[in-house]
Design a protein that fits this description.
The structure is a single chain. By secondary structure, the protein is α/β, with parallel strands linked by helices. Helix content is 48%, strand content 14%. It contains 16 helices and 9 strands. The strands form 2 sheets. A 7-stranded mixed sheet has the order 5-4-3-6-7-9-8, sandwiched between helices. The protein has a two-stranded antiparallel sheet with strand order 1-2. Strand 1 and strand 2 form a beta hairpin. Helix 2 crosses helix 7 and helix 11 packs parallel to helix 12. It is globular. It starts with a helix and ends with a strand. It binds S-adenosylmethionine. S-adenosylmethionine binds next to helix 11.
Length: 325
């Protein structure tokens, strides 16, 4: 580990990580960097300043987003490929999402005093309300969620014993990408993605997927074998989570399974995604947070659910499976 002054400098200057990644993507570097080339050639093809690009490319090499070889040629690596806007994984949309002025403003307003809705204070409305009024940004957010959803679908499918389930409701399922991937792997299933109407208007097409718009705080589609809530509870405070789970129980049958997927808050903090998303939730929501298994068990108990099993997923999240008490 670096000496304390260097750790402080590295951390203080890490605000540049975000900006340089955004700047390289905005310039089109991942798309233009299809093979080994000089920075001069890259700069010419992008019509940007050679000296400035060289400095940002050096930064990108240090962060592992691309490589500069011993001859000084810049070349793409696996991360560069994932950053391309036409990569099927769709992860570029995460860069575009966090580059939004509303996100930058909310994160810049983060403080230690606690409480309140930092996103609403910075932007005039809570996150999902604001998104509903800004279709361009909302669709970028949906795309970022869809990238995660594809990963979650594959990791859930590898880890969960579906045990004869044939119908699935993905609550807060966005444009339905997670359901689509699962349907493609299970030809006898049918699924519903349930989300806000403005999001459902952009839902993907699939012959066995129904896209239903509504408000999960009011009611949910009834009678599914499995209810999924993937990265949904971490957006909300405890009281709201209990309401969401209570509404899930009201829609479920006695035999339904409720699977909650979120990053797990560990006893000791780690330098991992969960620690980052926990603070991101502090910046973007009003009481949203990553939670421990014990916290999920308590939320479930208050809603009439009992924990059946907890399964770590290769995505780094945990699946908490509940039964209806
Ligand atoms: C963090 S995203 C997670 C999306 C998706 N489950 C995933 O993991 O990619 C939370 C989702 O909850 C949806 N949502 C927010 N408020 C909602 C409400 N009141 N009723 C239904 N869905 C809602 C959002 O539109 C968004 O798609």
């Amino acid at each position: 580990m670096a000496p304390p002054p260097l750790q402080i400098l590295e951390s203080a200057l890490s605000l540049l990580d975000h900006r340089v990644l955004v700047a390289l993507c905005e310039a089109g570097v991942p798309e233009a960097l299809t093979s080994r080339m000089t920075v001069m050639k890259l700069a010419e093809s992008l019509q940007v300043d050679h000296d400035r690009l060289e400095r940002l490319v050096r930064f990108g090499d240090a962060r592992g987003w691309l490589r500069i070889d011993r001859r000084g040629l810049v070349r793409p690596n696996a991360v560069t490929a994932f950053l391309r806007s036409d990569h099927p994984g769709g992860w570029r949309s995460w860069v575009d999402f966090v580059a939004g002025e509303e996100i930058v403003k909310a994160v810049a307003a983060l403080h230690c005093r606690g409480g309140g809705d930092g996103f609403a204070a910075a932007n005039g409305a809570p996150f999902f309300e604001w998104m509903a009024g800004h279709p361009d940004r909302s669709s970028t957010f949906d795309d970022a969620m869809a990238a995660g959803a594809r990963m979650h679908a594959l990791s859930l499918d590898a880890a969960i014993d579906w045990d004869g389930a044939i119908s699935l409701c993905d609550v807060g399922g966005g444009t339905g990408e997670l359901a689509r991937v699962l349907l493609d792997r299970h030809p006898d299933w049918r699924a519903t993605t349930f989300d806000l109407p403005t999001v459902i208007a952009r839902a993907v097409d699939h012959p066995r997927l129904e896209a239903v718009g509504g408000d999960a705080f009011v009611e949910m589609p009834p009678g599914f074998d499995v209810y999924l809530l993937v990265n949904v509870l971490h957006d909300w405070d405890d009281h709201s989570c209990v309401r969401l789970l209570t509404n899930t129980v009201a829609a479920a049958s006695a035999r339904s399974r409720v699977i909650v997927v979120d990053n797990n808050r560990t006893t000791m903090p780690r330098d991992d995604i969960a620690t980052r998303t926990d603070v991101l939730m502090a910046a973007l929501t009003n009481g949203g947070q990553e939670r421990s298994t014990e916290q999920f068990v308590e939320l479930g108990r208050r809603a009439g659910l009992y924990l059946v099993t907890t399964t770590p997923l290769v995505s780094g999240d945990f699946a908490h499976e509940f039964g209806v008490a």
